[in-house]
Amino acid sequence: MILSQIVAFSENKAIGCDNKLLWHFSEDLKYFKEKTSGKILIMGRKTFDSLGKPLPKRFHIVISRTQKKSDFENVIYVQTISEAYSAAEKLIEQNLWPKEVMICGGAEIYKQTVNDCHFLFLTRIPGHFIADAFYDFDFAINFTKTHSTKSETVPDLIYEIWSKNHKVS
Ligand SMILES: NC(=O)c1ccc[n+]([C@@H]2O[C@H](COP(=O)([O-])OP(=O)(O)OC[C@H]3O[C@@H](n4cnc5c(N)ncnc54)[C@H](OP(=O)(O)O)[C@@H]3O)[C@@H](O)[C@H]2O)c1
To answer: Residue 153 and which of 8, 30, 83, 105 are 20 to 30 A apart at CA?
Structure first.
């Protein structure tokens, strides 16, 4: 399994408020769709609730201590992060889904999974936003920026890919 986080955050590291996103950039939504389509997604219960329904052509593993049963196809609930990883591994072993697994938030889940990830797909949103959810940890200690692409439609919006540093022993 190759684990990646995908997240859009502002200059003050805001990602959401009142369980909603803080901006709407169709180019970034297209980027999210392109990077996640056909893949397994892992997310927190609040982020899944904020979607309202599953995203097409993706399998959702939702982490929750309280919810257990899903009414939707392509959605399962698990109670721990390690159960989420095991469920993803099982689906990959059965050749049902590819080995690239995307962690899609929110703040609680990003923070608890960052050290397990191989790649971070970061969208840098210009500006400062009032928020209650943040991407607020120092990922630069363990990751190195390997790609940076400027938006074609939004001034100062940048797409970055960071890769996990290899440990030298
Ligand atoms: N900008 C972006 O790229 C982006 C992406 C995704 C989300 N967001 C935003 O982020 C915000 C949501 O983030 P959030 O931090 O509030 O919520 P979250 O991470 O989506 O979900 C938190 C929930 O996940 C479950 N959980 C967390 N850690 C767990 C663990 N170790 N074991 C079992 N369950 C665990 C709990 O569910 P239960 O309460 O059910 O037990 C917890 O309440 C929203 O505003 C959303 O719009 C932004």
So the answer is: 105
